[in-house]
Amino acid sequence: MSELLDARDEADALARLHELGCTDGLPVVIPTPDRVERMVLATGLDGDVVLGEMGPLGAAVTIEKVAANAVMAGCEADHMPFVVAVVQAVLQPEFDLSEVQSTTHSIAPLIIVNGALGPITGIASGFGALGPGHRANASIGRALRLCMINIGGARPGVSDMALLGHPGKFAMCLAEAEAASPFPPMSTRWGAAPGADMVTVVGVEAPHSVMFVNDADDPDSPDRLLRVLAGVITNSGSNNLYLRSGAVVIALNPEHARVLADAGWDRERIAQQLVGLCSVKRWMIRSFNPAFVGAGDDDDDVAVLRSPDHVVVIVAGAEGLYSAVFPSWSAGGHGNIAVHQAVVTGQACEIPSVLMTG
Amino acid sequence: MRDGIELAQRGLAVVALVTEPFWPQGDLIALSNGMPDVPRVRLPHPVAGTSSEAMSVLADEIAPRLVAVLRGDTTPDNASVGAAS
Predict the structure, then answer these.
(1) Which of A150, A160, A221, B53 is most buried, judging by how many CB atoms fall within 10 Å of its CB?
(2) 8 Å CB contact of A158 and B33
(3) Is the pTM of this model over 0.95?
(4) Are A159 and A21 in contact (CB under 8 A)?
(5) Looking at residue A350, what is its pLDDT?
(6) Burial of B53 (C-beta count, 10 Å sphere; 0-12/13-18/19+)
(7) pLDDT tens track for A234-244
(8) Quick one: pLDDT at residue A234?
(9) Closest approach of chain A CAs to the CA of B29, in angstroms?
(10) What is the pLDDT of residue B80?
């Protein structure tokens, strides 16, 4: 059982939580025992079940602690299967969470939801899916961040050493726009059955907007779109150019996705094409940051993406001119790769109505 | 910091080099790993990106102190943290 905080009322409790550094700077819902218990019940697991240890502090991640942070984030009970799956995902060793939390880079976890349950739960995939106005997106993403703060111990300038950070560190969660996508769900590329509920989490930079105007009369349009995307991935400020390791996420809006699908390309083909296009001459790297130039001749072509498996293509956002690229941190022991976790549903206990007013 | 902790856990003599802005992080990592007394020495910041000449000057300045800490002839910069914990 977690330690209880004494407070006169909810306003006093909120002030105390801010003082203790237990918030993200915004007001939180006070995690009273009744509210936390309701969220624990929504997981179908006992509160003392341990999911793992969360760095850099190395604290035990219990269901009760996750539930408390989900309450603070404003989650509803229906969000809990996603919150638990997301926490399990970042606890996978391949995510290198301690390093993600501690780096001076502005990396933040991007949560991508696939499957039938996401839209039913209200996880948005279209207009402004990563912006304000979508409770499920904001709450689930924020729940992970609050877990990273309160369980993992990330505090700016003490343990979270991001030099600047970015607003995506508050929350970055969206569903893939499966209904609008010309492709099978992204999760099927990683072994999930179509319709199966899965979360994918990738540590990424802030999204970079990608403008592209299609011309249906131009047979070069699909290649042109890929060249524009490649230009963003290989931009001179991105870690991808220098460390050449991590996974990038490309969020194609449905209109841009159709440009590529109508050319007969699937996700694998797109990823392969981008690996080929994301290549620069070594002299360019030398001219920007010679510390990362590597061994070889200046006229060598240097691949920026390690393999097609490091290109995560999703369909998201609304129709129009803009897609987005999320560059990689490209560091950590496992090189900043995407992790995946099945969402376990149907395990929730019946939530007593008396607690629903708590 | 973690490298120093992992080596210390193997029973080796270590001293971790921590630059000034990262000192609180070093304390946190050492405490959270149950080894608050892992010796550490404070370096000026930044180290990365300084010239080779500046690095050599810093190395010449710091090396005797590192050897002395490893030998136990002098206390590291975190001695007071360790004593308090």
Answers:
(1) A150
(2) no
(3) no
(4) no
(5) 60
(6) exposed
(7) 999 999 999 99
(8) 96
(9) 7
(10) 57
Rounded-to-integer distance, Cα A114 and Cα A92, Å: 19
Which chain A positions have a beta carbon within 8 Å of B32's beta carbon? Answer: 56-59, 153
- Angle A15-A21-A27 (CA atoms, 0-180°, nearest 5)? 50
Dihedral of CA atoms A347, A352, A353, A357 in degrees, nearest 10, equals -90
Bond prior to A308 in cis (omega within 30° of 0): no
Q: What is the ipTM of this complex?
A: 0.78
Where along chain B do its domains lie? 2-84
Contacts of B72 (CB under 8 A, 6+ apart): none
Query: Cis peptide before B46, with omega less than 30 degrees from 0?
Result: yes
Q: Residue B64, class by beta-carbon neighbours within 10 Å (0-12 exposed, 13-18 middle, 19+ buried)?
A: exposed
> Are B28 and A157 within 8 A, CB to CB?
no
pLDDT for A356 beyond 70: no
How far apart, in Å, do the first and last CA atoms of chain B sit? 18
Residue A354 pLDDT more than 80? no
For chain A, what are the domain ranges? 9-205+336-346, 207-328
A339's enclosing H/E stretch is: strand A339-342
Measured distance CA(A67)–CA(A34) in Å, rounded: 11
| DSSP structural state of residue A350 | P
Of A58, A59, A158, the CB nearest to B25: A158
Q: Which residues of chain A neighbour B2 with C-beta distances below 8 Å?
A: 98
Q: How far apart are CA A110 and CA A177, in angstroms?
A: 15
In this structure, are residues A232 and A325 in contact, taking their beta carbons and an 8 Å threshold? yes
* pLDDT for B19 beyond 70: yes
Q: Per residue in A171-191, pLDDT tens?
A: 999 999 999 999 999 999 999
Q: Is the pLDDT of residue A1 over 90?
A: no
CB pair distance less than 8 Å for B25 and A159: yes
Contacts of A96 (CB under 8 A, 6+ apart): A332, A333, A334, A336
Residue scoring higher pLDDT (A45 or A347): A45
Query: Six-digit token pair at B71?
Result: 């030998």
